[in-house]
Backbone:
């Protein structure tokens, strides 16, 4: 794959070839990734004033400072590369799947007498993974089925041949109740064990036909040999498989290996249902929500979700069923809109799921909004506030034995954290551990800045601390001439007492009250934010002190090294070439020579 860079004004020089384009802003941040059958036509369409591009896209185009392209062999390759880049970089103008879950897999280990168990961590060397499973319940159903049909061990013993020969193991309860045949004491050969395991693999792949044929043959052989008890057990296992298949069957078993993807949309979001069907059985059903970024078409939204979900669930589907004709088909992606029969019924089932998911989300959002309104109204009542406290700001200080004093301010809007409004503060005017003076400084700085920028003041200020910190914050507001324009309270940690300025006695809100829980959450968030910043500052100071002790390394160079390597340990392990990329060849040589001389002195 070839990669090249262009300026926006040079977009007509792009090749008429499939590929991926990346847009960067003037600070070098990746803001958008796209795919194209023809890079020249697609990228040029963004800069053509006659194409009626929507306002959101126009806003993005204004930010573009550099274009990078990567040429690939086909549009399908471009689609896969685009998906990988979006997943890795999450550019701000690309659609993102709103799903931060990790899904479970079933693992067949790579060891003597392999085990089967669930895990959420993929380490390829450990064995073969099956999944991921969108539902833990569905995964457990498959695992329970396998353990009912086969005698797969569940212990963690090392069953290497020499370990078994040493005779150190004893059979456990699983052997006595018939769930294991005792390979740990040589009662079952690995060859016999692997026959069962092979059938389990077929079930995990969704191929139930082969295990059914296996048990049917077993049943017939036992019956011919007059081993009727064994024949009955084989029949019971065959019945169990057929019941499992009947329970999961949603279509004609002749529908072998298909994906189904449908969506319903509103003004801001798309609600997508994705299903995987094997041999007529539904093995995955997953709903996701997409937020529109540039008023994307239904086709773009569907393809975006489909490719990412296929990647997430390791799909090898021969065909993908979709709810409408795709106007711009992609070679290599077999998309079909069924009009009759079982495939059409699968589309209807998927659409039913997508619509239900949309309704569920709308209901949840309504309930959440009602709850937030109720909680902040309750807080207004509990504190006798003049206005609904839909804008709360909370301050906290952090220092340990006076070192690296810092402070934080967190902001909650409508009862919800507004993370973009959070602020960190280095204490500038106070020497030594003085929480009261530090609080006065940061409150003064915060509201002086808001007044200068003509921004709205909060409806409630919360100070993490008792009467001392509260009095200091009040002094800052008085000096700015805005004391009394907004309520301010202090919340003491020990008894969750709430103080108002000038009142000797605190007020207590019912411990079970939602409004108190909101105040506690605001206070705890400010504390967390301050502590995290304090640790970062202390770590940076320690790192900088160690580096500036090296001849030729000043504070500016130390900061560059900190930003790149994050820790002294990583710097000590780095090669000279990597260090040189950050601070230049001569300084890198000095640093490496110093490192070699002082090796072992830590």
Residues:
């Amino acid at each position: 794959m070839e990669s090249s860079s262009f300026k926006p004004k040079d977009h007509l020089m792009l090749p008429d070839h499939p590929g991926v384009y990346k847009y960067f802003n003037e600070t070098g941040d990746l803001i958008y990734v796209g795919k194209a059958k023809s890079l020249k036509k697609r990228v040029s369409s963004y800069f053509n004033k006659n194409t009626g591009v929507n306002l959101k896209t126009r806003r993005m185009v204004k930010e573009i400072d550099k274009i990078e392209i990567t040429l690939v062999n086909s549009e399908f390759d471009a689609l896969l590369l685009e998906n990988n880049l979006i997943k890795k970089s999450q550019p701000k103008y690309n659609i993102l799947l709103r799903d931060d879950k990790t899904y479970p897999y079933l693992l067949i280990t790579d060891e003597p007498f392999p085990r089967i168990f669930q895990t959420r961590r993929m380490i390829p060397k450990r064995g073969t993974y099956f999944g991921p499973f969108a539902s833990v319940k569905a995964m457990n159903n498959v695992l329970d089925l396998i353990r009912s049909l086969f005698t797969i061990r569940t212990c963690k013993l090392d069953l290497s041949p020499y370990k078994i020969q040493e005779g150190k193991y004893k059979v456990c309860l699983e052997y006595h109740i018939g769930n294991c045949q005792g390979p740990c004491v040589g009662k079952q050969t690995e060859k016999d064990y692997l026959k069962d395991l092979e059938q389990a693999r077929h079930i995990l792949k969704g191929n139930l036909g082969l295990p059914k044929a296996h048990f049917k043959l077993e049943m017939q052989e036992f019956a011919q040999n007059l081993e009727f008890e064994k024949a009955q057990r084989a029949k019971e296992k065959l019945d169990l498989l057929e019941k499992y298949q009947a329970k999961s069957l949603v279509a004609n078993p002749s529908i072998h290996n298909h994906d189904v993807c449908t969506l319903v949309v509103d003004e801001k979001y798309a609600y997508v249902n994705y299903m995987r069907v094997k041999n007529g059985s539904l093995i995955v059903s997953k709903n996701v929500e997409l937020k529109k970024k540039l008023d994307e078409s239904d086709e773009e939204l569907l393809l975006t979700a489909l490719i990412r979900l296929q990647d997430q669930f390791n799909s090898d589907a021969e065909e993908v069923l979709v709810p409408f004709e795709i106007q711009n088909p992609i070679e290599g992606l077999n998309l079909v809109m069924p009009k009759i029969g079982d495939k059409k019924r699968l589309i209807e089932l998927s659409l039913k799921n997508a619509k239900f998911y949309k309704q569920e989300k709308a209901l949840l959002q309504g309930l959440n909004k009602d709850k937030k309104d109720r909680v902040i109204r309750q807080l207004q009542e509990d504190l006798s506030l003049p206005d609904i406290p839909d804008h709360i700001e909370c301050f906290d200080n952090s220092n340990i034995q006076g070192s690296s004093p810092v402070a934080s301010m967190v902001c909650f809007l409508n009862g919800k954290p507004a993370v973009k409004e959070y602020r960190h503060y280095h204490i500038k005017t106070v020497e030594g551990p003085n929480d009261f003076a530090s609080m006065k400084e940061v409150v003064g700085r915060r509201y002086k800045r808001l007044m200068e920028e003509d921004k709205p003041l909060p409806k409630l200020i919360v100070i993490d601390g008792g009467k001392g910190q509260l009095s200091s914050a009040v002094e800052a507001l008085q000096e700015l001439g805005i004391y009394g324009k907004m309520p301010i309270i202090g919340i003491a940690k020990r008894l969750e007492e709430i103080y108002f300025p000038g009142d000797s006695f605190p007020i207590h809100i019912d411990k079970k009250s939602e409004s108190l829980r909101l105040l506690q959450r605001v206070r705890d968030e400010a504390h967390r934010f301050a502590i995290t910043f304090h640790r970062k500052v202390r770590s940076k100071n320690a790192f900088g002190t160690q580096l500036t002790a090296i001849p030729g390394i000043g504070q500016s160079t130390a900061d560059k090294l900190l930003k790149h390597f994050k820790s002294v340990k990583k710097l000590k392990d780095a090669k000279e070439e990597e260090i040189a990329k950050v601070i230049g060849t001569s300084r890198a040589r000095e640093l490496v020579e110093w490192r070699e001389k002082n090796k072992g002195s830590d």
